[in-house]
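Please check what follows.
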Amino acid sequence: MSKDEATAAPARRTQAQRASEMQQRLVEGAIELLKKKRYAGFRIAEVADQAGVSRGAQTHHFPLKDDLVLEALEAVYRRTSAASTRRIENARKEPAALLDALVRDSREFFLGDDFYLSLDLMMVGADSELGVAVKKLARQYRLSVEHAWLRAFVDAGCDEEAAEDVVLLTYSIARGMSIRKLMSGESKRFARLMDIWQTTALGLLDERSDDERDG
C-alpha cells in the first residue's frame, strides 16, 4: 500500500447511509422516550432533542407520531428476537440446557423495560390503526420466538405437546411475575420461583419423552 493510499481520507458515506443512520438515531431516541414516558406522554417533537438531530430532519424521516412508534417497537422486537435466537443456538441440544436458556431469556425480556414498552403499546385502543399494527408486530415477532423455542425442544428429542406446555407456561409465569413487579416493584422471588418451575418442567419433559419412547 502506498503512503498516499494509507493516508487517504475514508470514503464518504452515501446519502442512503446518512439517511439510514439518521433514522436509526431517531428510532433509538423514540425507544428511550417511550420507556421513560410511555405512549401517553410521548411527544414526537421531543425525539429530535433526545436523538440530537434537527426538528426538520425528524419531520422529514418520521412526520407522523405513530409511524415512529411502530418503528421503535419493531426495533425492540428485532433486538429481543435476535437475543432469543442466539440463546437457542448457543444452548447445548439437550432439554436441561434449553430450559435454562429459556428461563434466562424469559427473565431478560419480561422483567425488563422492553416488555413494559411493548405492554404499554398493547394497551392502545384495540380497534385503532396503531393498536391493530402493534398486535400484528407482536404476533410476527413474539409468536415466532415461541415457535423457535418449541422447535428447539422437539429437535432435542422432547415430546412436542410437553415442549409446548413448557414454553407457554414458562412465558406465562414470567409474564405474571412481570405484572407483579409492575404493581409492587418486587422481583426478588422470581429466581426462586423459576427454579421451582424449572425442576417441575424438566420432570414434565422427561416424563412425556419416556412415555413416547415406551409407547
Summary: The mean pLDDT is 89. The radius of gyration is 22 Å. Residues 65-214 form a domain with the Tetracycline Repressor; domain 2 fold (CATH 1.10.357.10). The first helix runs from residue 3 to 6.
